[in-house]
Specification:
It is a single chain. This protein is mainly alpha-helical. It folds into two domains: 72 residues, Rna Polymerase Sigma Factor, Chain: A (Orthogonal Bundle), CATH 1.10.1740; 58 residues, Orthogonal Bundle (Arc Repressor Mutant, subunit A). It is 74% helix and 0% strand. Helix 2 packs across helix 4. Pfam families: Sigma70_r2 (PF04542), Sigma70_r4_2 (PF08281). GO terms for molecular function: DNA binding; sigma factor activity.
Length: 170
Amino acid sequence: MTAPGLSAVSFDALYRAEHARVLGYFRRRAGRDAAPDLAQEAFARLLRSGALERAECPEAYLTRIACNLLIDRSRRKRSSPTAFYHFDETRDAVSCADQTWRIEAADLFHLYRRTVRAMPRKTRRVFLMRRVKHMSFKDIAAALGVSVATVDYHMVQALALCRAAVAVQW
């Protein structure tokens, strides 16, 4: 349906030329979800207004319509009532009991200790120097008389053993 006297060809040409620009405008200002609907509404308003034949620069008129749509949208959002709900403490989210967490933490700690004890001697030593004594790879390499690459190798091995033990347990 076109407005009286409006050429469908000129509207179609304007739509094809300006749709991407108007859509991009709304994407930047209103988001990807709202942009297609707002762009469609902008072109519908332009068509209903009958200004396509009267306007010297229909692109600028379309931009003004788009701007006004965003202003109207903002006003609607501001004036819409906000819903407030009574806070009911008895309906609080269920949380895991502290005792359960402590038991799981103790189990994990025992698993960790067993895994470290089962590591090869050199791997265990490198791992403990790094994790317990907080030594750098360079300091560990100097203390053990090995290269930094060797320290890195043993740390990777130790972490893989820990990861595997946890994966089997849980």
